[in-house]
Design brief:
two-stranded parallel ribbon, 32% helix, alpha/beta, single chain, globular, 253 residues, 17% strand, Rossmann fold
């Protein structure tokens, strides 16, 4: 893999994706509203496109992504609600205009609340309180499912600025919670499942740098991650601390 385009390269996760791409000697392109917020090494080595996503046209977005092997969107946060949904829809729609020879493998960002909790298919966003904030993840997932893009959807818990755990130590899952709930959960009503789900969140608090590593490790066209939700958790027995992530933007749950 040799070329990657990143939206949101000045954000918490996007910075790590961009830096790791450069470390892999990939050709990096970034689209930003404020060049001054780019990390110096990214500003010096990447192809930088000036792009305000709040006003960008479909043609501008597709032109930025065209010809790259990988496209990663780290832009927007779930707390923006409808604005986040509209952003993802515009990005997906722009990518859909590209011809098959111009389309990259695409990564988008959601959260652990979008993962099935048990064999019934019930998700965290179906639970009371959780859905009030994290419902945009469901909308964005449904939009991706309607698309014919080769997409992947990262669904971590809260992310923190901490040293890497290491990709080889992380637990990852496809379309399932990487920290399974007790089997009794499937028979419980949503209100009683909520505390069980909440108890699992500390196991899914992962460093931004590890989240970036998960993305860059799964970028081959049509691989096992293609068109799936990818969950990530810490090694068995390890938990993150709430005081490390409580002040972070609520991108995921």
């Amino acid at each position: 893999m040799s070329s990657i385009a990143v939206l949101g390269a000045t954000g918490n996760l996007g910075r790590h994706v961009a830096r790791q791409a450069l470390a892999h000697d990939w050709r990096l392109s970034v689209a930003v509203r404020d060049r001054g917020r780019l990390a110096p090494e990214v500003s010096a080595q990447a192809r930088v496109t000036d792009l305000d996503l709040s006003a960008a046209t479909s043609r501008q977005i597709s032109s930025f992504a065209a010809g790259h092997e990988v496209f990663v969107s780290c832009a927007g946060v779930v707390s923006e609600g409808e604005a986040f949904v509209r952003l993802v829809d515009r990005v997906v729609s722009a990518l859909e205009t590209l011809g098959s020879d111009q389309r990259p493998v695409c990564w988008f960002l959601a959260g652990a609340a979008l993962l099935p909790l048990d064999a019934t298919g019930r998700m965290g966003v179906d639970l009371p309180k959780v859905r009030e904030t994290y419902w945009p993840h469901r909308k964005n997932f449904e939009r991706l499912q309607r698309s014919d893009l080769d997409w992947r959807l990262l669904c971590p818990g809260p992310m923190v600025e901490q040293p890497a755990i290491g990709l080889e130590r992380l637990r990852t899952s496809i379309d399932s919670l990487p920290t399974p709930l007790p089997s009794i959960a499937r028979a419980l009503p949503p209100l009683l499942v909520l505390p069980l789900f909440a108890m699992k969140i500390p196991e899914m608090i992962i460093p931004y740098t590890d989240a970036a590593s998960v993305i860059l490790a799964r970028v081959r066209p049509g691989d096992a991650a293609s068109r799936h939700r990818i969950g990530v958790a810490l090694p068995v027995g390890m938990k993150g601390k709430k005081d490390q992530w409580a002040a972070q933007p609520r991108h995921v749950a």
